[in-house]
Write a structure and sequence with these properties.
The structure is a homotetramer. Chain A is of the alpha/beta class. Chain A has helices at residues 14-24, 44-47, 64-67, 82-87, 107-113, 132-136, 147-161, 190-193, 209-220, 254-262, 311-326, and strands spanning 4-9, 29-36, 60-61, 72-75, 94-97, 141-143, 168-175, 198-199, 225-232, 239-246, 268-270, 288-295, 300-307. In chain A, helix 1 (14-24) links the parallel strand 1 (4-9) and strand 2. In chain A, helix 1 (14-24) crosses helix 11 and helix 7 runs parallel beside helix 9 (209-220). Chains A, B, C, D: It catalyses: N-acetyl-L-glutamate 5-semialdehyde + phosphate + NADP(+) = N-acetyl-L-glutamyl 5-phosphate + NADPH + H(+).
């Protein structure tokens, strides 16, 4: 197979940086155009000092022209930007959107949560979901999931699909601050973040909620409600999702259900009984760690999932989907080991 | 009023250190005996370098003799140690136990969660709970609550007492690592903790669960189930509890219920609408910050509470109860402002 | 003595917030006007959620009018702003400038390092320096030192004054990120700061350098060169300064020199031999911890100092100087114990 | 070339874990025996949850027998343990010692700093030092440098070798806490480390000092004194070394000297002028970032170096040396990009 030429739009941000880190280690690709918005014209090294081999590459404007001529284009842009760009990139180009534009299948949901016209949905980039992998093989368009929905969906879909729980789930997910992007907001300053925990988007108003509802309802085969609370914690990367739902029965077979769901998945690890996930173990890796248990007193199934929000939660998933789209082995170029301690 | 002479047993640990920090600033007390277990014979400054005015005080053994002759004795000891000690301190001494021994009223619950003989219960040191303050005034024995139950009980009791929710609550509480004490365990090492999030005691097995059940069932007037998941995060101090329960009705009046519950409480602050608690704002303060909202899609009430686990969660509550026991103004010597950023 | 009415200009920033935290606990003052620049018109609680008792106070514009009518005005403003304001506040008002405008005595130094016209110097707010305290008693104008110069000057002036070392000192000072203020710059975002160490202003170009030179040259009685390297570390507060200089003799008497220099100082603690300063022990306290040793191989005296950059490094020093200016006991309202762990 | 079979002694520690992370990604090796001390008999996953592909591998005792039959043996053991083991491993085995035993060439220095009999020196594993690479090619024994000496030697040897500075250097190096190993000591607990900066081993008593003296004296061709102060900061990994020395002349040509010294080095990056190293950019990478400047006022050359103490500072250097010993391309399997943010 010939080397694929890729472009990254939004190369100065956190998702863009993580994409490039992974792509530099990918044996089947060559890094082509790197584009940005306000940072166009500056060298990448200013924004991504850890990407030493690309330090002197100068960022171009994000336009259809600068992105043309690549086999694969990754879009790491603010939402609302990708539909128009993608339309100008040609049907043969693999376009992988790390933004939200094409994740929701329901136009009304799009309008409620994001507003404006719905750009339509693309194959959803969580191959571990039932049916998702087949839709991703050979596709030319991929909607990469949000980081929270990735963690929550991996944690809960097997239980919902197996009817182990009733469809009213509660998710509290704690996240590192890179999930908020490289935004210059006072509450994201280091001095504010370090030594503090804070909730935000409480009460079902975070935009990742409808994505969880969509994934979990599909798995359950009926409407699922999701009470989602995101929490910001003082670390750069990592999501720990604690998820639970009322037991439909006595919870017997819960572990077996999860073992079976993930037996053949290369990136999802159900830990040995009694061991609980830590985000550090997934740092920089395209892995998810899971553990499941039954709370007999509260009559709930509890599942905990750990991922790196920038890797399995964004850029790693994007590369995993690129592999599927291009017909490469799904695990090509993706790390299984985290950087710890 | 004459100055009260106080002793602290367990002065080398985190709870002991925070007690002394607060007591040094308290206008009505004089710090007497400081005792410890394995650290007896060493100066306090070795263990608590921040307590400069007490740096040269030498720790004595924790015995009835070294603790005798004080008006107030604080016990910050491993569980199972306080009943016997307290029995030898005389009925006139105010004994304030920061451990678990006298928190649970039900002997069977004690046996299930801690094992061994139940030492009986003492007035419970969360004055904000219905009826609790009266039992604490003038008492000679106080059981200081656990840090997680403090956060979860303040977050949820008003809704349960008012019948706003059904009695099946879910609590995910994220905590700094001082909550685990000064224990030399590998998973508490700085290199392990920093940059990581982890869950532990998942599935209803954390010993703070029955304490939440006890408090919330009393408030609700019927049995409450609590699905509790604690999460360890990379900060020294702070608990952020995200709590929710199914709405019993439409959630109308939720904010008013909380406003009323805490209108006269000096240490509990319901934040302005749209503002969410951060633990940094409570650092070193005896305060709790709360916010409440209704998730209409999930039909749940969601409450978030922030405290400092060592202050309002332990040592601040202990001093607050001492004030009540001694007939002092409840707020004497207790900071309302956190140390931020 | 009647209660003094104080105002804080720049109340929404980090220095302003720390001033208010300390002043809320000060028994002789009443908090009057709170002013800001871009944040004028908003409640303080939005910017300083830890200052609960002042949460609803609305910020006014920083003008001579809003600051008029106070006994003491603290200025926590960008440099270049205080001279003109102070001139309009009246000679009877105690004006305490946390900015740089009046620190340097040498107009040429001002021009080189800050540019523009020199506003003249005010009594320098580091009472521990030889002669400084007398100049501060009863003064109506105070220039609060920079945080790095405070740490480095306390660490080195006794050795230079005693002739223990030659006047070529090297200072590497590691700082928490609040030292950079609440500035919306990418390198100060939490995700950038956490998990990283970085140097900046290397090679003698940091503006605190001439202030160190001024203080240390005065102590030595001859010109001192200072090679200063600041390092940013992942914590909100704290400065650890490692300072050294070539021995002039054999280093004998070093400890005694420091003991003598600080014997009567209420806020500077020379630690017991073999114990080294930690910034956590000074968190939120107006203290400095010091240790000194001789490196016989390298023939250098090495001194390490720890302070909280916002307390002894800025706002605590400001209050200490206010006490001197007003004729109050110097330690009034200032904490000696840090908040640890 | 056939696949090399490697063993790691001390696989449960931080250096051992990082070795395995790198070796899992190395195309020319196969991971054989994993041994430990007190952790023998337990699965690796308990100690290194990030090394998912090796999670079920059971640790054996560290003995000559368990280490026999491998092409390469990495020793990550407490000092004093490697000489005897190595003697029993056969002269054909490549033995790479991450401990201190064979770093110092001077028996008297060994006796002074470590005590006991000197085990003799092995080729020193910092290929970037003059002459070092040749001694490492094809060797069967390697002494991997200490992490601080790696940073300081890379920062300073070019200037000393070129005579740009006089031989009295000052080094303050700030480090993450994994440098202290997985030691159960109170001051390494997360709650103590987070939010604090502390110096230790001050005054030339840290055992890495003689290693710096040895490297830099060799480069200078005359005795060099090193005033070394290590500082512990709240991050898991990373060393930022700030280094300086008096100029011998006017400092002209400093940048060119460094450009020339590192022009052909694959892992050492002299950053563009005006850009300063950050440890985050080296996280998990085998790189060093450098910047150099002249402080004309203080008449000193100042150099700042950033490395990951576990990668270029330990395990990455070990693999780099293995590549040289085995005749592989030096960069095989070693990451150039850090994991940031």
């Amino acid at each position: 197979m010939q080397v694929m030429r890729i472009a990254v739009a939004g190369a100065s941000g956190y998702a863009g940086g993580e994409l490039l880190r992974l792509l530099l280690a990918h044996p089947e690709v060559e890094i082509g155009g790197l584009t940005a918005g306000g940072s166009a014209g500056t060298p990448l090294g200013v924004h991504q000092p850890h990407l030493l081999p690309l330090a002197e590459r100068v960022l171009e404007e994000t336009t259809p022209e600068t992105l043309a001529g690549h086999d694969v284009v990754f879009l790491a842009l603010p939402h609302g930007r990708s539909a128009e760009l993608a339309a100008q990139l040609g049907d043969d180009t693999v376009v992988i959107d790390c933004g939200a534009d094409h994740r929701l299948t329901d136009a009304a949901a799009w309008d409620r949560w994001y507003g404006g016209e719905h750009a339509g949905s693309w194959p959803y980039g969580l191959p571990e979901l039932p049916g998702a992998r087949d839709a991703l093989r050979g596709t030319r368009r991929v909607a990469v999931p949000g980081c929270y929905p990735t963690a929550a969906s991996l944690a809960l879909f097997p239980a919902l699909a197996a009817g182990l729980v009733t469809p009213d789930v509660v998710v509290t997910a704690v996240s590192g601050t890179s999930g908020a992007g490289k935004s210059l907001k006072p509450h994201l300053l280091g001095a504010e973040v370090m030594g503090s925990l804070s909730a935000y988007g409480v009460g079902g108003v975070h935009r990742h909620t409808p994505e969880m509802v969509q994934n979990l309802s599909a798995a359950a085969g009926r409407p699922v409600t999701v009470s989602f609370t995101p929490v910001l914690a003082p670390l750069p990367r990592g999501i720990l999702a604690t998820c639970s739902a009322p037991l439909a029965g006595d919870g017997a077979g819960a572990r077996e259900t999860y073992e079976k769901a993930y037996a053949d998945e290369p990136f999802v690890f159900l830990l040995p009984e009694g061991t609980w996930p830590t985000t550090a173990a997934t740092l920089g890796a395209n892995t998810a760690q899971l553990q499941v248990t039954v709370d007999a007193d509260a009559q709930r199934l509890v599942v905990v999932a750990a991922i790196d929000n920038l890797t399995k939660g964004t850029a790693g998933a994007a590369v995993q989907c690129m592999n599927l789209a291009l017909g490469l082995p799904e695990t090509t170029g993706l790390p299984l080991t985290g950087v710890a301690p």
